[in-house]
Amino acid sequence: MIRARLLTTSLLAIAVGACAGSGVLVAPPAPEEIPGLEAGWAADRGDVATGLRLAAAYRGAERGDDARAVVTELGEIAPDEPGVLVMGGLLAEDVLDWTAARVAYQQSLSAGATGPLRAEVEQRIEVVRREELRAEVRASLLREDQVAQTSPDPATVGVFPFLYVGDDPQWEPLALALPEMLTTDLGVTGRLRVLERIHVQALLDEMALGESGRVDEATAARSGRLLGSGNIVQGSLRIDDGTRVGVDAAVVEVGASGQARVDPLSDQDRIEQLFALEKRLALALHEELGIQLTPAERERINERQTESVQALLEFGRGIAAENAGDYGQARQHFDAARRIDPGFQLAQTRGQTAARLADAATVAVAGAASLAQGIATQRQAVNLIRNAPPGLRQRVLSNLSDSKRAVLAEVLGQDRVGQAVLLELIFRSPGITP
Q1: Helix axes 174-186, 309-323, angle to 10 degrees
Q2: pLDDT in tens, 206-240
Q3: Would you say domain 151-304 falls under CATH 3.40.50.10070?
Q4: Where are the domains of the chain?
């Protein structure tokens, strides 16, 4: 009897949309539901769905400690349940523990989060990762006196935005795009740990560095220590008469406090040879950093992401928009770069990231909590239907409308066990007990 009630309740909940597979969010429980959920959770500590709903209710009522206590217990009961992991990530976000949130979200993906829940988690990871880097930078600034006495990792390199010194502002995006290309090329061998642009940008934002600060040797050395980077690449870019491009770059080798060495590099060419110039610069940077390239590595570095200056300009505009936090605009520019050059894979990758960030900015975090509840309900229903006698399955189905049966079919079709059950149900008429 208990099993029958549970099965009926779970199936009907799914049929009216309380599942991740249907794309319909589960409404967070109202505060007045908390006593009933507490009673249900106390009666059955193995009921993951009720536990998640209780945690969501506590979170909605700003009772974070209570919510975390429930999720901690759920983690012991169902450590690989995506919904539990996602809820843990959301609660970590609430207290600004970005690292714990990122780890929880990544674990939920590994545990099999699917459909809208997976999409929501991927969006949150992009947001959380950026917040995590900003938190690391702020922590480094707070303990700068201690950091200044350490020697950063000599195998780590950070590429700063270049300073544009031309007269025509239409070329300015190249000062962002070129360092991004160099960052990619420096990561080819795997022998250097290359800081992501967002890590470098987080420091620039926190230090409120202007363009003059970016090219100052002392500031570069300070930045390297704060980032834990033994090398900082920075420089300037100019376009003369719209026909020639020149680059002055430098590798600032960062030692302990007060120690730094600068190795300048310079090159120029016709604007049509911009990409050949970038490759020469990338090879020269490897040499300055003490990396002896194999012929195969040299060949890989020489592979060009694009040969369209216009595509690279759009790419640079996308980086500028992303740095400003306008992810929707960034996506448009990255997409424009791909339209100009469909083979520009780096633009595609950055565009996908910008799209996730843009979506995350418009979807409330509560949506992920709702989906987490839904996925637990879905899995519980699939497990119950698997273990139910065939006759009971049929009696439940006979009470569902066609639309509710369609939702149920969508849910079951996402689970291997559910798929097998679904096939059995399809080939039997509702209401017929074998």
Answers
A1: 90
A2: 887 654 445 567 788 888 889 999 999 988 999 98
A3: yes
A4: 2-133+364-426, 151-304
Q: CB of 199 within 8 A of CB of 133? A: yes
* Model confidence at 260: pLDDT above 80: no
Fold category of 2-133+364-426 in CATH: 1.25.40
Q: Give tens-digit pLDDT for 75-133.
A: 999 898 888 898 898 899 889 999 999 999 999 899 887 777 777 788 889 889 999 99
Beta strands in 160-243 (DSSP E): 163-164, 193-194, 229-240
> Which amino acid would we find at residue 34?
I
193-194 vs 153-159, strand pairing mode: parallel
* Residue among 300, 277, 41, 294 at smallest CA distance from 177: 277
* SS3 annotation, 335-384: HHHHHHCCCCHHHHHHHHHHHHHHHHHHCCHHHHHHHHHHHHHHHHHHHH
Cα 97 to Cα 59, 90, 367: the distances in Å are 16, 10, 19
Cα distance between residue 310 and residue 206, in whole Å: 31
